[in-house]
Fold UDP-glucose 4-epimerase.
Amino acid sequence: MSTKRVLVTGGLGFIGSHTVVALQNEGFEVVIIDNLSNSSIDVLGGITQITGKTPEFENIDLREKAAVKNFFDKYPDIEDVIHFAASKAVGESVTNPLLYYENNLSTLVYLLHELNKKENSKFIFSSSCTVYGQADNLPITENAPVKKAESPYGNTKQIGEEIIQDTCKVNKSFKAISLRYFNPVGAHPTAEIGELPIGTPQNLIPFITQTAIGKRKELSVFGDDYPTKDGTAVRDYIHVMDLAEAHVHALKRLMNANEKDNYEVFNLGTGKGNSVLEVINSFEKVSGEKLPYKIVGRREGDITAAYADTTKANKELKWEANRSLDEALKSAWKWQLVVKKAEEEEN
């Protein structure tokens, strides 16, 4: 068992917290950096409940260059980083682009500055399938062209990948992997941790569960005139635990990398697309709840369909998504019920 210490930035967020669980279950020691701007310190307790171990935690704003340097001075043995910390609401990035460029790019640069000083550091970057835009061919392979970004958020993922790639070119001992996520959904099966959007959810699943629990009046389905089987947009929904486990596989690949290219990209999805209406039907089936929804006009910047070709990740990372959409929605609903109970107890 490895007792290597790994830094997980944004480790109390949705994907970050589930990845911390997966790492700790594999015997890694984890240090989390999170500034709690879009997460809650309570998540630390959830991680501890699941794994029996409390990760070390540092409340640091990665936009402060000196704070990043001080962190690595305090933890000189850390050379492996999984970087989640970023702002991720597409709509907000359109109205507040500078916040996104500062949050998502300066933090990346400061981390890479510190890792560059080390002998053989390893870096995993949270990227996104948004880099492909509306791909010319489906399913989407890693060789699909990166399209002009539709939003500042998408642009920060593209530029982030370029920054890492350029760093790898000049520093051959630095190894990095960019993981392009499709649509992460669900929660840990214990319902100790899950997706906790602050304010109005930007993603479909939390909006569905909040509507079913009575927090939202109804769900808006944006467009039913897409050229898909039922007219609604199609996405690749991957269970967050499958996604989390992929990071462990990626980290092990970096640790065992010999002569491989020191920069690689992988798509993380299920390889299957589901329409919005299929997701609603699946949710109603597993929850037993009837979901109020209405069809409204398309949303600007939304694409028709995106789902992954996962061949490369399956083969090279020796990983595949095993959990079903039903399973993901069942776990998301279980988590929503726990959140509601906690809110009622607080009031």
Notes: Residues 283 and 329 are 6 Å apart (CA to CA).
